[in-house]
Design a protein that fits this description.
Distance between the termini: 19 Å
Number of strands: 16
Largest sheet: 8 strands, mixed
Order of helices and strands: EHEEHEHHEEEHHEEHEEEEEHEEH
Number of helices: 9
Radius of gyration: 20 Å
Oligomer: single chain
Length: about 260
């Protein structure tokens, strides 16, 4: 099965980082957040990726073109014009990078990669959200219910820390508790090829007309994920994820 990753947006809410690179290439622990997403899928046996590029897509292409250089030690023999790569840390990945247009909306990006997916079910997610989602269980659930689409629902983390109180006394502090208990779209979809018929053109926003029509048609199932999930929308989010990675206890590191 293939995994499609939407990696073409502008990322305006984290412009401190995205003025020079697309948001999925912003680094957590020295690796692009896109890499973290791919490692999650790879840990569950998904190694074939289709990445929907747009804004500054050349940065993503250059990263994978030079992946060995990023991940290994290298010796340059300048006199003899030779390069030797040491400690080849290759991933078992096949990566297809598709230019889906700078102005294309999320639905349009998915529509544009239809030919690369073919007639099989496929995974689909965003290039800026990470979590310890059980991809194998998600795929199995999709196969069992037989609908066109499965959405992973998650409860967003709170933006601020919370106080646990007893009267006028502070009992303890709680870091980033869950929000109000509501469930939101956490990405990590599994989709059947029929969903392409729900997408009109480049201007179609996946999270609006297609998803809403799939729901009205009874073709959208939900898989609940109560574990870790965190989008990287702002500099605050990036710093939080960096802290978790630096602690050596990043919840999404399942590999």
């Amino acid at each position: 099965m293939k995994a499609v990753i939407l990696a073409g947006g502008l990322g305006t809410r984290i412009s401190e980082e995205t003025s020079i690179r697309p948001k999925p290439m912003v680094e957590i622990g020295g690796k692009p957040v896109l890499w973290h997403v791919m490692k999650t899928y790879s840990a569950h046996g998904i190694h074939d990726f289709i990445i929907c590029c747009g804004y500054k897509g050349y940065v993503i292409k250059e990263y994978f073109a030079n992946y060995f250089l990023h991940m290994s030690d290298v010796t340059f023999d300048m006199q003899n014009n030779k390069m030797e790569v040491h400690q080849r840390n290759a991933e078992p990945w096949r990566v297809t990078l598709v230019d889906t247009g700078e102005e294309t909306m999320t639905g349009g990006r998915i529509k544009r990669i239809a030919e690369y997916v073919g007639d099989e079910n496929f995974c689909c997610t965003y290039g800026d959200g990470i979590g310890d989602v059980n991809i194998k269980a998600l795929i199995e659930f999709h196969k069992q219910h037989g609908k066109f689409a499965t959405l992973t629902a998650t409860q967003p983390p709170g933006r601020f820390g919370a106080l646990n109180l007893s009267g006028n006394s502070v009992i303890s502090f709680q870091e980033k508790p869950h929000g109000d208990g509501g469930w939101i779209n956490g990405g990590f979809f599994v989709l059947s090829p029929e969903v392409f018929n729900y997408i009109k053109d480049d201007r179609t926003i996946w999270e609006r007309e297609p998803v809403e029509q799939l729901a009205r048609d009874g073709q959208m199932a939900v898989h609940f994920h109560s574990g870790f999930w965190q989008p990287m929308d702002t500099l605050r989010d990036k710093n939080y994820l960096e802290e978790l990675w630096a602690s050596g206890k990043a919840p999404w590191k399942i590999w």
